[in-house]
Amino acid sequence: MDWLARWQNNKIGWHVDAVNRSLIDYFELLELAPGASVFVPLCGKSLDMIYLSEMGYTVIGVELSAIGVKQFFVDNSLPYSVNQINGFVLYESERIKIYCGDYFSLGAEHLSSVSAVYDRASLIALDLDLREKYAQHLAAIIPLDARILLLTLIYPQHQMSGPPFSVSNSEVESLFSSAFQYRQLHCFNDIDNEPKFLRAGVDYVENAAYLLQKGRE
Ligand SMILES: C[S@@+](CC[C@H](N)C(=O)[O-])C[C@H]1O[C@@H](n2cnc3c(N)ncnc32)[C@H](O)[C@@H]1O
């Protein structure tokens, strides 16, 4: 997937002009202390970052596309500064920092303050090989005890090509269970709210949420 071209051509069908319902429903399970930092990998220009910052949390995102990062600050009328830091261009407003660059180049030193991770349309944006790399990298760069709210989709992959890719419950378990405690929060068929899947003739699309906690090295 050429993500930079997607941004260049404004083909960003994953972007939603609303805060994600599962974030609202479950963010308390992240047990965030006041002012805590939340990491949002592959963040795009998600309004979920605005929601978290308006609740007083600090957000640290990473996004490959400078177009996406700039649109995030401009669309939300947030004044921001831009600096070069450790191979990344860091865009920063009062409560939101976005590293513009490759997630896989981010190190533990960038995320030492983080106590939670919010993943919507990040893991499922990647193909199988990259998902394994993504999960291993996440385990390596976030602090011990950090919690993750992970949202995924499960659908018959042969009926539609990704992204978003279908990521089964057993795949989540195999990707994360060696380094994380893991609990599924919900999993239900949401096909009626997924017009793209309906149009493609997909039989079902399950919307799943998980709470993970980094507990074992
Ligand atoms: C499907 S979108 C989801 C964006 C966001 N999570 C949301 O919910 O709107 C995936 C995003 O990941 C970005 N991306 C893909 N690979 C990346 C990488 N290796 N490092 C940083 N960002 C990446 C893409 O540019 C794209 O904006």
Labels describing this entry:
nine-stranded mixed beta sheet; 9 strands; Rossmann fold; 217 residues; 7 helices; binds S-adenosylmethionine; 26% helix; alpha/beta; globular
Fold blueprint:
Elements lengths: L2 H6 L12 H6 L10 E4 L7 H7 L3 E6 L2 H10 L5 E5 L2 E5 L3 E5 L13 E7 L7 H14 L5 E8 L14 H8 L3 E10 L5 H5 L6 E9 L3
Parallel strand pairs: 1-2, 1-6, 2-5, 6-7
Antiparallel strand pairs: 3-4, 4-5, 7-9, 8-9
The structure holds S-adenosylmethionine (SAM).
S-adenosylmethionine binds next to strand 2.
Distance between the termini: 31 Å
Shape-level CATH architecture: 3-Layer(aba) Sandwich
Please name the CATH topology: Rossmann fold
What is the CATH superfamily label?
Answer: Vaccinia Virus protein VP39
Give me the oligomer status.
single chain
Small molecules in complex: S-adenosylmethionine
Please tell me the total number of domains.
Answer: 1
Order of helices and strands: HHEHEHEEEEHEHEHE
Shape: globular
Query: Can you give the mean pLDDT?
Result: 96
The number of E-state strands comes to: 9
Give a description of the structure.
With 217 residues, the chain is of the alpha/beta class. Helix content is 26%, strand content 27%. A nine-stranded mixed β-sheet has the order 3-4-5-2-1-6-7-9-8, with helices on both faces. β1 (37-40), α3 (48-54) and β2 form a beta-alpha-beta unit. The radius of gyration is 17 Å and the shape is globular. It starts with a helix and ends with a strand. It binds S-adenosylmethionine (SAM). S-adenosylmethionine binds at residues 3, 14-15, 42-44, 46, 62-65, 68, 102-104, 120-122, 125, 163.
